[in-house]
Automatic annotation (TrEMBL):
<protein>
    <submittedName>
        <fullName>MFS transporter</fullName>
    </submittedName>
</protein>
<feature type="transmembrane region" description="Helical">
    <location>
        <begin position="315"/>
        <end position="332"/>
    </location>
</feature>
<feature type="transmembrane region" description="Helical">
    <location>
        <begin position="151"/>
        <end position="173"/>
    </location>
</feature>
<feature type="transmembrane region" description="Helical">
    <location>
        <begin position="414"/>
        <end position="432"/>
    </location>
</feature>
<feature type="transmembrane region" description="Helical">
    <location>
        <begin position="339"/>
        <end position="361"/>
    </location>
</feature>
<feature type="transmembrane region" description="Helical">
    <location>
        <begin position="278"/>
        <end position="303"/>
    </location>
</feature>
<keyword id="KW-1133">Transmembrane helix</keyword>
<keyword id="KW-0472">Membrane</keyword>
<feature type="transmembrane region" description="Helical">
    <location>
        <begin position="179"/>
        <end position="201"/>
    </location>
</feature>
<keyword id="KW-0812">Transmembrane</keyword>
<dbReference type="GO" id="GO:0016020">
    <property type="term" value="C:membrane"/>
</dbReference>
<feature type="transmembrane region" description="Helical">
    <location>
        <begin position="213"/>
        <end position="231"/>
    </location>
</feature>
<dbReference type="InterPro" id="IPR020846">
    <property type="entry name" value="MFS_dom"/>
</dbReference>
<dbReference type="InterPro" id="IPR036259">
    <property type="entry name" value="MFS_trans_sf"/>
</dbReference>
<dbReference type="InterPro" id="IPR011701">
    <property type="entry name" value="MFS"/>
</dbReference>
<keyword id="KW-0813">Transport</keyword>
<feature type="domain" description="Major facilitator superfamily (MFS) profile">
    <location>
        <begin position="27"/>
        <end position="465"/>
    </location>
</feature>
Amino acid sequence: MGGQRADANPNEVVTDGGLPPAARNRAVLAVAMGVSMSSLDTAIANTALPAMAAQLMATPADSVWIVNIYQLAMVATLLPFAALAEIVSYRRIFIFGLILFTVASAACAMAWSLPSLVIARFFQGVGAAAVMGINTALLREIYPRHMLGRGLGTNALVVAVSFAVGPTLASTILTLWSWPWLFAINLPFGALAIYLACKALPQTARAGHKLDALTAFYSFCAFGLLILTIGEGAHLSSVRTVLLEACGALIFFVLLLRRQAGHHAPMLPVDLFRLPQFSLSALTAVFTFAAQGLAFVSLPFYFEAVLGRSAVETGFLLTPWAVLVGVMAPIAGRLSDRYPVGILGGVGTAVLASGLMLMIFMPAHASTFDICWRMAVCGIGFGFFQAPNLRAILSSAPPSRGGGASGVVATSRLIGQASGAALVAFCFTISARHGETLALSLGVAFAAAASVTSFARMFVPAKVD
């Protein structure tokens, strides 16, 4: 699996695992712009939620749907897009996602009420799913195998920087303009990303099977109801509602598994989970992103309600985590090209657990320095885990199943984050006074579990493409 010839056309079918340097850089820029917009939009919406709720005259509980519907749409459509990408090519699905995301951003900017904004955010989430669901599969085709870890590290850096600048960018936009500009800012960047993607992204080999629409419908319903069940359960909704949603999710998962039984490339890639390296890496991702979700949702409440910091200060106090993820991700990505990912991920998640433990035992009157160095420890640990784990998932799957593996990458991340955020709500329901501490304690437990599953990969065979 070597590099392509120097005069290769970037739109030719990739057969040997990578584009030449100039074409590779253009393709990586196109992918990075799509990933950064999807990630940045999540961070911006979370930060600006109170302002949007106030201007739309919506209650806080109702306004949460601005964030939830985006996340639900992404989780529900990731695997169908990943499966479709293997059939029609990663390039086409990525470009479609960029176009839909950009058009939906314009609809968000023109929304006149909460329902209209929620509907537009749903389609924006669908577009983001097409981008995020196959971006790592595209990187697998853009980079030669010996540089894959470096490429995944760069991708993790883009996500980290997007999350780091999100709160500051949202505050700046809301200071100068009104909330519609939070979405209108995507339009010029989306247009540029679409242009670059059309010019630079490579064509990839296509699978010979067809997409089963009924399987896609079952997958959409199963994962959508799963996210609804997690959210409703965490908010202690009526038992009847939670049970109905849980039963609905279970029924659709059973229908999905029965429908795709015997298929050589199932939409929900249960066949890949038979590979120990793949399943342990996916489980490590769910645990680690749950720890991140628990921390990122609970810490703002801790900084503002307990430590008395302002919203602007809170944005800056969260920054060291994201910045250190960005610093460590390329380093860890390069190391994953040479050293076992089980060790790298195990060490990283252990450091993350230690950082969260340090946050729990922080002094009552902590200084900015006290907070920042602890957040930096968490960022170092998380950054050391991310790129090696991505490489483990992609490398343990056959090359022809890159779309399914990439879909599992994104699905594991979103399920972990959604579970973490839901558990924060559960912790506050149990104890309004100590909810932050309970949430961080759960974060420590999830990070420790991730460390155990990561080190366990040292004792199972790795399937390398």
